[in-house]
Inverse folding.
């Protein structure tokens, strides 16, 4: 069986963790493809709520091998702590593999992230301050430290010394203390060591054996470094193509691309968002959807579903089906709107333009329908749903041109309905 990709179709936080957790029992392996501890994946199981940053959401399924792929940037100290936290709650983490090609986020990358955000002044991106951009910058500048290097103290010192020659002039002395850094990295390396391997070979072995591999992206395609709202983006490719690259699989090995979308829009950090609501409706979505960042605790910006951006995301990523999450948030809404077109300079515009001034000037046009005004959190099958809720989900399928195959009606594992 080939690979399936699970990606975020909007600005992240669509509930990818829940979908990965739901599909993990059908897969032999879950591979995380991009991003780092900027991500926060929440999964609710009968054992409680788990918030993962680097560990793939499949870890809660004991039969699943979990891989952190080459496309991820890893804070080894944070990852070691995350594993210890999971182990303390009885989760078996021995099934974790870490690509020796993945790059390392060092403590000074976080300092640089903070420093750059200050320099940007009113044009700050609103990053998660987890050092993600600076770590990817060192990677593409070919001076990055890779996870495999953690096992070689000499190589590690040499690479970090080189990075500090590059960055040292704007860091505080505490941030350039290489001995202290090596000490904490070595402790983390002791914990992670048994998992570090040529992970992409194991991914290919699994595919060769005819087993299902799930590739889990972090963030969302509107934050993609190439096709997102640059520069208000993350520093990786949360796209279907990025999933292949980050996991070590070929496009021809993929047969499903599951685009996870919320029934509305949210965004954390700066940058245009044409359907944003600054009123009580936006606040109600935030409250009912518990829209506060998993990683930073920041309140998320909220707005109506943007079908123009979604259609564009589906096209660019070959999304073959949509998982629509958090539909129950609308249970108390008498009316629900969806942006179905944009007007720009008095003309219709069918995609997200590269120029952000243009995008900021876009006016979203809406179609509004009446809500279902009924609690759907207890629904478990399609037949349990009120006609209005089903009609809303179908309207998202029509507006995006991609069928909705799954629908979330609450955070728990069983609150996911497979649609016919
Ligand atoms: P960075 O990835 O920390 O560099 O942040 C860049 C932008 O991406 C900021 O707007 C962040 O809020 C956003 N971002 C990064 N990771 C996530 C995520 O997991 N969910 C939602 N937004 C994210
Ligand atoms: Mg998140």
């Amino acid at each position: 069986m080939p690979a399936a990709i699970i990606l975020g179709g909007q600005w992240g936080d669509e509930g990818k963790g829940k979908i990965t957790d739901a599909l993990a029992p059908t897969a032999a392996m879950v591979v995380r493809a991009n991003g780092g501890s900027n991500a926060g994946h929440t999964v609710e199981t009968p054992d409680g709520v788990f918030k993962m940053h680097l560990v793939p959401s499949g870890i809660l399924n004991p039969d699943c091998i979990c891989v952190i792929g080459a496309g991820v940037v890893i804070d080894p100290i944070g990852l070691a702590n995350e594993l210890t936290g999971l182990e303390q709650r009885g989760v078996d983490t021995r099934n974790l593999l870490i690509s020796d090609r993945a790059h390392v986020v060092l403590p000074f990358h976080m300092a640089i992230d903070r420093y750059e955000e200050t320099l940007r002044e009113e044009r700050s991106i609103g990053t998660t301050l987890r050092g993600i951009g600076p770590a990817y910058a060192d990677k593409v500048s070919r001076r990055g430290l890779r996870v495999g290097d953690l096992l070689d103290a000499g190589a590690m010192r040499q690479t970090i010394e080189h990075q500090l020659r590059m960055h040292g002039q704007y860091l505080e002395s505490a941030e350039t203390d290489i001995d202290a850094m090596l000490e904490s990295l070595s402790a983390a390396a002791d914990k992670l060591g048994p998992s570090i391997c040529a992970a992409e070979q194991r991914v290919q072995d699994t595919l060769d054996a005819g087993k299902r591999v799930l590739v889990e992206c972090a963030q969302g395609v509107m934050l993609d470094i190439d096709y997102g709202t640059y520069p208000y983006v993350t520093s990786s490719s949360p796209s279907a193509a990025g999933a292949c690259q980050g996991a070590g699989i070929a496009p021809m090995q993929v047969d499903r691309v599951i685009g996870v979308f919320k029934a509305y829009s949210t965004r954390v950090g700066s940058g245009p968002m044409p359907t944003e609501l600054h009123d009580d409706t936006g606040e109600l979505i935030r409250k009912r959807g518990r829209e506060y960042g998993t990683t930073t605790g920041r309140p998320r910006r909220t707005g109506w579903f943007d079908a123009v951006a979604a259609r564009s995301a589906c096209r660019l990523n070959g999304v073959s089906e949509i998982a629509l999450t958090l539909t129950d948030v609308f249970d108390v809404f008498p009316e629900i709107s969806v942006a179905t077109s944009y007007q720009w300079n008095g003309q219709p515009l069918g995609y997200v333009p590269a120029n952000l001034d243009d995008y900021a000037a876009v006016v979203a046009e809406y179609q509004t329908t009446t809500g279902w005004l009924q609690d759907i959190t207890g629904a478990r099958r399609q037949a349990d749903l009120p006609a209005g809720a089903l009609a809303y989900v179908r309207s998202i399928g029509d507006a995006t041109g991609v069928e909705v195959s799954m629908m979330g009606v609450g955070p728990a594992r069983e609150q996911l309905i497979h649609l016919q």
